[in-house]
Design a protein that fits this description.
alpha+beta; SH3 type barrels; 6-stranded antiparallel β-sheet
Length: 238
């Protein structure tokens, strides 16, 4: 057992990656302070980690938290107070990276959703990594703060938004697929309410699916390839 106390993301991330790189499957128990107030204890998997952020998936509730060292980043939903890593049983989790062809964002996200749903497992989570560009027709640009506020409400995971002229670029890393779908829907609605026409939404992305190790690799690969998609890689421990 590895017990890390305090809000230092660096130590927790380094410990996690060291364990995973040594092919050790781990479950993380996290005590966290939530942005809305109060504390929460959860058990799950770390989907992605840097020296600034941890994307944590609560297995029991199927909820994703973006944890950071403070709430200055509006996307951070929790600050860890204590993280305990436990060595998992052999029926831990694998992560499958699925190549989604670049194209219209609605089609890309739909394919990613279908890929997630095609893998039958009780414990699963689906994430998107990539770039989504939104082009719109307007005489003025949209304030990035307004779009960021909307994204914070919808997206669970790491994201960065840039605006230039009549273009919005959304950069995603381990962002919840359902959250991205909701954000694009809300964004289109917000633009329409201001009388702004959305011209094109283009996506370049890779989906990541976490599945139980009890689900056979060949079964997962077959289910995904039956959709005409390819596996970009498999992380044996996650």
């Amino acid at each position: 057992m590895f017990d890390i106390r305090g809000s230092s993301i660096t130590g927790a991330s380094a410990t996690y990656y060291k364990l995973v790189s040594n092919n050790v499957s781990v479950l993380a128990g996290v005590s966290m302070a939530r942005v809305e107030g109060g504390y929460l204890n959860a058990t799950g998997k770390i989907v992605y980690a840097t020296d600034s952020f941890i994307v944590f998936y609560d297995i029991t509730k199927g909820t994703t938290f973006l944890m950071g060292q403070d709430f200055t980043n509006p996307a951070v939903s929790a600050i860890p107070v204590r993280i305990t890593y436990r060595i998992a049983e052999d029926d831990g989790f694998r992560k499958f990276f699925i190549e989604i062809p670049d194209g219209d964002a609605v089609s890309v996200l739909s394919m990613a959703k279908t890929a997630c749903d095609s893998v039958k497992t009780l414990e699963k989570a689906c994430y998107l990594t990539g770039i989504i560009d939104v082009w719109y027709k307007s005489n003025s640009s949209i304030a990035s703060s307004l779009i960021n506020s909307l994204a914070v409400e919808d997206i669970q995971g790491i994201f960065e938004i840039e605006t230039a002229g009549n273009e919005i670029t959304l950069k995603l890393r381990a962002a919840s697929l359902d959250g991205v779908r909701l954000f694009l829907s809300d964004l289109s609605r917000m633009l329409a309410q201001q009388g702004i026409e959305t011209r094109k939404v283009y996506a370049v992305g890779i989906s990541e699916i976490i599945v139980e190790r009890g689900v056979g690799i060949s079964d997962v690969i077959s289910a995904i390839r039956n959709l005409g998609l390819e596996i970009a890689g498999i992380q044996e421990r996650c």
